[in-house]
Please model this.
Amino acid sequence: MSRVLENIEPKAVFNFFEDMTQIPRCSGNEKAISDYLVDFAKKRKLEVIQDKALNVIIKKPGTKGYENAPTVILQGHMDMVCEKNKDTNHDFSTEPLKLRVENDMVMATGTTLGADNGIAVAYALAILDSDEISHPPLEVLITTDEETGMEGANNLDSNNLKGKILINIDSEEEGTLLVSCAGGIRNIISLPIEWNRCPDGYIAFDLRVRGLKGGHSGMEINKERGNSNIMLGRILKGISDNIDIYLAEISGGAKMNAIPRESDAVILVDPKDKYKVVEEISEWNKVIGNELKTADPDVRIELELSNTTFDKVFSKVTMEKVLAGLALIPNGVQTMSVEIEGLVQSSTNLGVLITNEKEVLLECAIRSSVSTLKFDIVKKMEALANLIGASSSNEGDYPAWEYRKDSYIREVFVNTYKRVYGEEPIITAIHAGLECGLFDEKLDNVDMISLGPNMYDVHTPNERVSISSTNRVWEYLVESLKSIK
Model:
C-alpha cells in the first residue's frame, strides 16, 4: 500500500507522522500509540520507561562531543482531539486517518489531523532514530491525555527525568517562541430535567446550526467566531418568545477545548404555527449571517420536519432554565492582558452541550494566565448554576506557566533563530494550556521554551500543517540542539 507522505521532506519526520495517523490515539485511548513508542525504543536498544498513565520516556546518550552537555527533555503529547464532520463516517477507535496533500498542506479528509501534537512526536522520533544528528543527552517525554485535562503530565513521576532544560514542541506558529501560557480548569453545570408528556398533535422539527469554523478554544477564542451552543440557545429563546414551543433534545460540540461548530435541537410546535417557525428561522439566518459575515461567513440555521416520534418533552420550567443558562453563561474572551498587547488573559468556552435521561450538561473550558481570575470565573459558573437550580463541578485544574526572566534555553533558540533565519523571533505568551505549567511545578527549576511549525484550524476537521514550515522548524530544532553544549 502506497504512503501519502513518503516523498515529503523531512522524510523521517513525515514517515513517523504517517505511522501515527494509522494508530488510534484519541485522548483516553492511547494504549496502542504508547506501545508503538515503546516498541520503537526497544528496537533501537534505547532506554524506555512506560508508566501507569501510559506516558513514555525514551533516553538517548549525547553524541560524540556532547557527552557532558546538559540533558535536554524533548516533550510533546501522543493524544489528539478526535473531531469529525457530521456527515463523515469515521471510527477513530479502529480506522486510520485519510490523509491528503493540498499544495503545502497535509490534511485529513473529514476529520482532525492530529498534527497537534503528532508532529512533536514525529520530530522526536526522527532525532532518536538518526545516527547523524549531533545532540546533547536526550530524554524524550511523550505524555498522554493532554487534550482533555493533562492527566499524563499530572501523573508523571518526576524522578524518571534528570534534565533541567525542556523543549516543548506543542506550539503552532513558526517564528514564535512561547515563554508563558495560561492555566485552566474544566467546569460542568448539571441541570436536572423535569420531563412532561408530549402534547397531543404537536409536530417535531430538527433545528441545526451548521457551517461554523470552530477552532482551538485558546488560540482562536479572540477571533470572534460563532459558538454553535450559545447561538442555538439564543435562537431557541427568540423563537420561544414568539411561538409556543416545547424542547425535546438539545446538544452540541464534542470537546471542551474546541469552539463548537455544530449544535442540534428538537422542538415541538402546534401545526398551526409551523409556517411561523419557518419564518423565524429565515429571519435568524439573516441576523446571524449579518453578525458573522466576516468571522463565520458560511454559518447557516437549518430546519426540517423530524423523522422521529417523541413521547416526552422538557417541562416549560426546565426549558426556561436551559435557555437562561445558555443566555447567561460566560463565554468567549473575559479579560485582556495589559502587559502583553493583544494577549487574551482570561476566557471561557462552552464546548459541549449534552442531553441525557436525567440532565442537561453544559461543559466549559476556562483559561486564564492569572489564577485568581480563573477561579473568579469558576465562582460565576457556580452562581449561574444556583440561579437556575443546577449544580456546578470542576475537574482537570492545571497551572499557568509563568515567564522566566533569565533563561539559557531561550538565549540558545533566539541566537540560533537569528543565525538560521537572519532575523529575530517573536517572544510571547499564549492563551492556551501547555503542559509546561505542570512541568514548572514537577521539575524543580526547569528551563523551558515552546515552539512548533505552522498549523491551522487545529481541533477541527479543517486542521492542517504546513509542509515547508515543518521542514524549516525541523532544521531549526536540529541546529538548536547542536548549540547546547
Summary: The chain has a mean pLDDT of 96. The longest strand covers residues 176-192.
